[in-house]
């Protein structure tokens, strides 16, 4: 009999396994239907010996010192500030849009103050900012929206930005200075030995048994457990009883080239051309040296593993109904990006998992007296 069954060995499941085993001294069976731990943050060395991210580029960034402190127990960090270029009108330009983006795009020499006026003269008045389109046109105007956002968003989500919640494009700021970092967070670093190594250290506890290539459905009736944490898709848990929640997927094309470098930064976005959204070159993220280089092309699709909840009012309403079903399962905790249908970054999932652990500590006496 396990004290806990945890379904999913990504950030949500692994953080909770670690906390429960180390702080409550309770036994955990952590399962995943994939062949590895780490969930979407999984990284591995490919045949050329280059550390790649199997499910696309994962860059750690946060403003929460407590989350950094927690993860730092399991990894050292490599300094890395993420920079992204966007291929627009045949030029590679900084995204988020900043002073250099505009000056290079239009061959101008504006100052920051002049750029403020430039945006002011182009932005559209939107009474209530509701959609992913509204956010951008009300900040930089329609032309820049069409060049940098509309095509990328249509590819990524399969719908027009006017059909998506404002939170989607609000993730990307607009700047009038020359700051070309993709994220503005106080802490931006990569796990020095990679994500998978960090997960392995997190799960290195005799109280945790990891079972891979195992679906929850295969074992839930045969392996006894007291309580469960579920980090897979919430609609799947309830057998899609209320209908399927939409998720967006990606097809990853991984390639290795016989040259040292392919592109000037880790990620180049393609909002106007190509079927893929972006190309990632991993050596920029990891600092690895090699005469070869490995890339990933991301092709968005509706078919395949669920990666992104789709932020739209109607999906949120359906999720709320699943959430109500989940609330009726007192011995199951639903945590993570898929189980709570949230477009969360890694640090937010760690924060959610730690907050869930605090709730468990408050509401459940430990079976081991720890
Ligand atoms: P997941 O990592 O999805 O883990 C859930 C696990 O549950 C999976 O391994 C799955 O196989 C397993 N599972 C599901 N159902 C079952 C079942 N029935 N039985 C057994 N196992 C099951 N965040 C950042 O902070 N920075 C980034 O740069 C970043 N880049 C990203 C790029 C891409 C392409 C994607 C898709 C996401 C990115 N993210 C990034 C988000 C990040 O991946 C997530 O926040 C985080 O990995 C979510 O962790 P999780 O544990 O909730 O879910
Ligand atoms: N986006 C865009 N053009 C870009 C970058 C982002 O249109 O060059 C939009 C797109 O809809 C994307 C969203 O902004 O899904 C959020 O971007 P972010 O880089 O945060 O997405 P992530 O890859 O982290 O999911």
Overview of the structural elements:
With 370 residues, the chain is of the alpha/beta class. The protein folds into three domains: 2-37 and 203-243 and 310-363, NAD(P)-binding Rossmann-like Domain (Rossmann fold, 3-Layer(aba) Sandwich); 45-83 and 181-191 and 247-308, no CATH class; 102-171, no CATH class. Helix content is 31%, strand content 21%. It has helices at residues 11-24, 65-71, 99-106, 112-122, 132-137, 142-157, 195-202, 216-219, 234-237, 283-286, 313-327, 346-363, and strands at 2-7, 28-31, 43-45, 51-53, 61-62, 77-79, 84-88, 91-95, 187-191, 208-211, 225-230, 247-257, 267-269, 278-281, 293-301, 308-309, 332-334. The strands form four sheets. It has a seven-stranded mixed beta sheet. The radius of gyration is 22 Å and the shape is globular. The two termini are 18 Å apart. The model has no long low-confidence stretch (mean pLDDT 97). Residues 7-13, 31-34, 39-41, 55-59, 215-216, 231-232, 250, 307, 336-338, 344-347, 349 line the site of flavin-adenine dinucleotide (FAD).
Q: Specify Rg, calculated over alpha carbons.
A: 22 Å
Count every beta strand, where a strand is a DSSP E run of 2 or more residues. 17
CA distance, first residue to last residue: 18 Å
Number of helices: 12
Number of domains: 3
In spatial order, strands of the major sheet run: 8-7-13-14-15-12-16
Order of helices and strands: EHEEEEHEEEHHHHEHEHEHEEEHEEHEH
What is the beta-strand fraction? 15-25%
CATH architecture of the largest domain: 3-Layer(aba) Sandwich
CATH class of the largest domain: Alpha Beta
Structural class: alpha/beta
Report the principal-axis shape: globular
What binds here, in terms of ligands, is:
flavin-adenine dinucleotide, uridine-5'-diphosphate
How much helix is in the residues? 25-40%
Q: Averaged pLDDT, please? A: 97
CATH topology of the largest domain: Rossmann fold
Question: What is the CATH superfamily classification of the largest domain?
Answer: NAD(P)-binding Rossmann-like Domain
Low-confidence stretches: none
Report the biggest beta sheet as strand number plus sense, adding barrel if it closes.
Answer: 7 strands, mixed
């Amino acid at each position: 009999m396990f004290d806990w069954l945890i379904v999913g060995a990504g950030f949500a499941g692994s953080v909770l396994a670690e906390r429960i085993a180390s702080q409550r001294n309770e036994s955990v069976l952590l399962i995943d239907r994939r062949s590895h731990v780490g969930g979407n943050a999984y990284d591995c060395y490919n045949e050329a010996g280059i550390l790649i991210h199997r499910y696309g580029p994962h860059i750690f960034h946060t403003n929460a010192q407590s989350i950094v402190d927690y993860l730092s127990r399991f990894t050292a960090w490599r300094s890395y500030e993420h920079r992204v270029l966007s291929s627009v009108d045949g030029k590679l330009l900084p995204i988020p849009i900043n002073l250099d983006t505009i000056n290079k795009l239009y061959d101008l020499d504006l100052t920051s103050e002049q750029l403020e006026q430039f945006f002011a003269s182009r932005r559209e008045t939107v009474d209530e900012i509701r959609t992913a389109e509204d956010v951008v046109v009300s900040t930089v105007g329609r032309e820049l929206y069409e060049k940098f956002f509309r095509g990328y968003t249509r590819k990524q989500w399969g719908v027009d930005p006017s059909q998506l919640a404002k939170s989607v494009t609000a993730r990307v700021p607009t700047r009038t200075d020359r700051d070309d970092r993709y994220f503005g967070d106080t802490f931006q670093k990569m796990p020095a030995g990679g994500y998978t190594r960090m997960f392995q250290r997190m799960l290195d506890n005799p109280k945790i048994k990891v079972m891979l290539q195992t679906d929850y459905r295969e074992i839930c009736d045969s392996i006894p457990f007291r309580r469960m944490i579920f980090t897979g898709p919430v609609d799947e848990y309830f057998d899609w009883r209320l209908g399927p929640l939409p998720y967006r997927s990606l097809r990853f094309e991984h390639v290795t080239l016989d040259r040292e470098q392919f592109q000037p930064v880790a990620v180049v976005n393609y909002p106007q051309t190509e079927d893929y959204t972006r190309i990632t070159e991993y050596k920029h993220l990891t600092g690895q040296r090699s005469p070869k280089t490995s890339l990933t092309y991301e092709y968005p699709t509706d078919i395949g593993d669920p990666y992104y909840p789709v932020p739209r009012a109607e999906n949120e309403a359906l999720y709320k109904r699943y959430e109500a079903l989940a609330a009726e399962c007192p011995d199951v905790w639903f945590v993570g990006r898929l189980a709570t249908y949230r477009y969360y970054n890694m640090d937010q999932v760690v924060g959610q998992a730690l907050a869930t652990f605090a709730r468990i500590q408050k509401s459940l006496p430990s079976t081991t007296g720890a």
